[in-house]
C-alpha cells in the first residue's frame, strides 16, 4: 500500500514538474522579446492602454483615435489600442509614471511636466522662445529637437513624436490683462514645473503649481483666479464657464510628446516597432492640423460665450519677455548649456528659412 502511494506520488510530481517546465519555457520566450504566443516570431497579441489629460472633444483625443485606427489596421488586430481621456488614468505626471512601471503603455503629456523626468525638456519652457508654429515645427524636427526625445530612454520611456498643445494664453476671473502690471497678485495655476512658477513670480503674479485634473474645480471654487492654456483647451474644457478674461499672451509654445513605455516598446517585433512609430508621427500630423484649426476658431467662440478678449501689444509683450529673462539664466545649467544654445541657434535658423 505504501509502495503504491509512493509510485502515485512520484507520478504526480513528474506531471507537475513537466507542467512547470513547459510554462517556464514559454514565459521565458516572452521575456526575451519574442512574441508572447508559443510559436515565437509569428503573431503578437498585445494591448496598448493609452491615456491623455484632455477630453474627447479635443484634437489630442482625435489624434489618439487616429493612432488606434492606424495601429489596429496595420497590425491586423495583433495590437489593440484602448483609449482613455480626461485624465481617467491620471494627470500627466501620474500617467508618465504608469509608463515607467508598466501599468500603462502610452500617454501624451505636455513637455513642461515631462521636465521633471528629463530636465532638458525645460528648454521649451523658455518664455517667448518660438515666434510662430512654422518655427516650432522646424526646431522640433531638428537634430536638437529629436535629440531631446532620445534622452527619454534613460527614464524607461520612448518618445515617438512631438504633437502639439499650442501657444498658451492667460485667462482669469479678476481683470483684463494688458500689460505686466495687470499680473500683480493674481492667483494663477501653473503646470507642475519650476521654471513656469518662477517666470510667473517675476511677472508679479502669485502662481500655484497644480495638476490639470484639479484645475477646473480650483477655478470654480476660487482657489485660483486664473490659468494659462491654448484657446482650444479653454474652449473645449469649458473654462469660459468659470473665467471672464482672456489675453493673447502667447508666452509659451507648448509641445506634447507621444510617449510609450520602453519595456513595452522593446518587446515589440521590429515590424511592429516601425508601425507604432509611423502611426505616432502620422496621427501627430493629423492632430496638429486639427489643433491649429481649433486654436484659430475658438478665440471667437470664447467671446461669444461672454469672455472679454484683450490684445497684448508687441511693446507690452517685450516688457514681459524682459522681466522673465533672469529665469532663463537661472535654469540654463539645469537644462544644459548646450541644449539652450542649440535651441536658440535652431530658432534663428528656422526664422531665416521661414521669412
Ligand atoms: C493635459 C495637459 C494640459 C496642459 C496643462 O494633460 O496642464 O495645462 O496644457 O492640457 O497636458
Fold blueprint:
Layout: H1 2-31, E1 46-51, H2 59-74, E2 79-84, H3 92-101, E3 106-107, H4 111-114, H5 133-141, H6 143-151, E4 157-167, E5 169-172, E6 187-190, H7 194-202, E7 206-209, H8 212-220, E8 226-229, H9 231-236, E9 245-247, E10 253-261, H10 262-266, H11 270-304, E11 308-310, H12 314-335, H13 337-354
Parallel strand pairs: 1-2, 1-3, 6-7, 9-11
Antiparallel strand pairs: 3-10, 4-10, 5-8, 5-9
Helix pairs in contact: 2-11, 5-13, 7-12
Bound molecules: D-xylonic acid.
Family: Belongs to the bacterial solute-binding protein 7 family.
Organism: Pontibacillus yanchengensis Y32
Region (Disordered): 24-47
Describe, in short, the structure shown.
The protein has 355 residues and is α/β, with parallel strands linked by helices. The protein has helices at 2-31, 59-74, 92-101, 111-114, 133-141, 143-151, 194-202, 212-220, 231-236, 262-266, 270-304, 314-335, 337-354, and strands spanning 46-51, 79-84, 106-107, 157-167, 169-172, 187-190, 206-209, 226-229, 245-247, 253-261, 308-310. The protein binds D-xylonic acid.
Amino acid at each position: 500500500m505504501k509502495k503504491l502511494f509512493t509510485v502515485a506520488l512520484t507520478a504526480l510530481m513528474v506531471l507537475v514538474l513537466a507542467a512547470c517546465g513547459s510554462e517556464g519555457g514559454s514565459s521565458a520566450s516572452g521575456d526575451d522579446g519574442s512574441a508572447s504566443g508559443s510559436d515565437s516570431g509569428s503573431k503578437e497579441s498585445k494591448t496598448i492602454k493609452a491615456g491623455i489629460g484632455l477630453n474627447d472633444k479635443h484634437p489630442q483625443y482625435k489624434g489618439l483615435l487616429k493612432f488606434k485606427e492606424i495601429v489596429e489596421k496595420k497590425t491586423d488586430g495583433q495590437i489593440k489600442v484602448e483609449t482613455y481621456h480626461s485624465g481617467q488614468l491620471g494627470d500627466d505626471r501620474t500617467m508618465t509614471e504608469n509608463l515607467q512601471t508598466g501599468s500603462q503603455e502610452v500617454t501624451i503629456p505636455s513637455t513642461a511636466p515631462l521636465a521633471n523626468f528629463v530636465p532638458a525638456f525645460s528648454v521649451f519652457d523658455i518664455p517667448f522662445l518660438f515666434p510662430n508654429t512654422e518655427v516650432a515645427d522646424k526646431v522640433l524636427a531638428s537634430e536638437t529637437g529629436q535629440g531631446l526625445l532620445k534622452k527619454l530612454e534613460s527614464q524607461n520611456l520612448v518618445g515617438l513624436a512631438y504633437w502639439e498643445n499650442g501657444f498658451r494664453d492667460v485667462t482669469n476671473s479678476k481683470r483684463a490683462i494688458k500689460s505686466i502690471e495687470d499680473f500683480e497678485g493674481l492667483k494663477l495655476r501653473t503646470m507642475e514645473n519650476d521654471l513656469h512658477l518662477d517666470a510667473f513670480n517675476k511677472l508679479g503674479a502669485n502662481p500655484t503649481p497644480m495638476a490639470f485634473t484639479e484645475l477646473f474645480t480650483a477655478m470654480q471654487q476660487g482657489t485660483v483666479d486664473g490659468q494659462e492654456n491654448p484657446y482650444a483647451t479653454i474652449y473645449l474644457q469649458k473654462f469660459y464657464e468659470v473665467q471672464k478674461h482672456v489675453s493673447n499672451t502667447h508666452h509659451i509654445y507648448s509641445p506634447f510628446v507621444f510617449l510609450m513605455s520602453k519595456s513595452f516598446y522593446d518587446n515589440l517585433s521590429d515590424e511592429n516597432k516601425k508601425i507604432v512609430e509611423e502611426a505616432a508621427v502620422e496621427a501627430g500630423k493629423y492632430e496638429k492640423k486639427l489643433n491649429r484649426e481649433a486654436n484659430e476658431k475658438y478665440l471667437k467662440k470664447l467671446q461669444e460665450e461672454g469672455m472679454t478678449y484683450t490684445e497684448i501689444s508687441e511693446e507690452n509683450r517685450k516688457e514681459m519677455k524682459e522681466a522673465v529673462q533672469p529665469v532663463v539664466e537661472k535654469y540654463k545649467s539645469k537644462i544644459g548649456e548646450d541644449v539652450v544654445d542649440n535651441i536658440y541657434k535652431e530658432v534663428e535658423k528656422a526664422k531665416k528659412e521661414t521669412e
